[in-house]
Amino acid sequence: MTTTDNDNINPTQIEPVTIKLTDTDLAAIRAAAEFTPVFSAWQTLTFLGVAGETQPQPLLPADLKRRRAYIQVRGTVGTPVQAEGSVTSPGANVAIANVAIASLAPGWYTVNWAVELDGTPGAGDVDNFILKGPGLGAGFTSSNDGAIGRYPQVPAQIYIPAGNATALSIRSILAGTAGAIYTAQLSLTPLVVPGGFVLVGQLGQVSNGQGGKLQPGDFRWEIRAHSALWIAGDGVTALNVTLCVERDQGE
């Protein structure tokens, strides 16, 4: 085999050549990269607003093939619920309308409620309904006359914690007048609570309460880091976190 002097050149002896790329060149390179097949995957993490969620949990692994990730934090967690009921001549502490424990998903809610009297109500039926449930303490007493009519009540805000063991109900306080028909309606609407957040960053950052603080909203954040990222809740607010990851296909 014949060799030339050029075959014995040490690569370290080669002088580097500076290449200047114009904006047009860079745009062409980026455009070509965008045509690389990309795989997208979605996932949703739910934070229930409990203390243990302040501990970091993995969000994204280290991945050199990850092109970008989008993350969006939504502050509405829970399921709308409605209930209505009617009882004639109720005894004391009788449920008129009730939402079972199993139907109360964790989260913050606005409770709209109304009471109604029909039949033969009397003075003993004045303010004789009460709204009772998780976090309501002794409950909220109705404001109503002892006469036939429908009486909307002031809405209440409640928080349903994870592991809740208390039903939500509108009940009689004392026994109703004979022949009085007690009717009640209630509805729960998931509530967006301002000030909630999640922390996103490297493990050390999130463990120390640092990292990026992402709050609920319709906007989304774009992540281009290839390193591993972690996430933690604030331990108070129920939140949904939606994540979309785009990565180049192939091994």
Structural shape: elongated
Biggest sheet overview = 5 strands, antiparallel
Instruction: Please give the alpha-carbon distance between the first and last residues.
Output: 39 Å
- CATH names the topology of the largest domain as Jelly Rolls
Which CATH architecture of the largest domain? Sandwich
Radius of gyration, whole Å: 30 Å
CATH C-level category of the largest domain: Mainly Beta
Helix content: under 10%
Overall structural class, as computed from helix and strand content, comes to mainly beta
Features:
251 residues, mainly beta, 7% helix, Jelly Rolls, 2 helices, elongated, four-stranded antiparallel β-sheet, five-stranded antiparallel β-sheet, single chain, 2 domains, 43% strand
SSE diagram, text form:
Elements: H1 23-34, E1 38-48, E2 57-60, E3 66-74, E4 81-88, E5 95-99, E6 107-119, E7 129-132, E8 140-141, E9 149-152, E10 156-160, E11 168-172, E12 180-190, E13 198-201, H2 203-207, E14 212-214, E15 221-223, E16 229-233, E17 238-248
Tell me what the structure shows:
The chain is mainly beta and about 250 residues long. It folds into two domains: about 100 residues, Jelly Rolls, CATH 2.60.120.770; about 110 residues, Sandwich (Jelly Rolls). The strands form four sheets. Strands 4, 6, 9, 10 and 12 form a five-stranded antiparallel sheet that branches. The chain has a four-stranded antiparallel sheet with strand order 1-17-3-15, with no helix packed on it. A four-stranded antiparallel sheet has the order 2-16-13-14. Strand 7 and strand 8 form a beta hairpin. It is elongated and about 105 Å long.
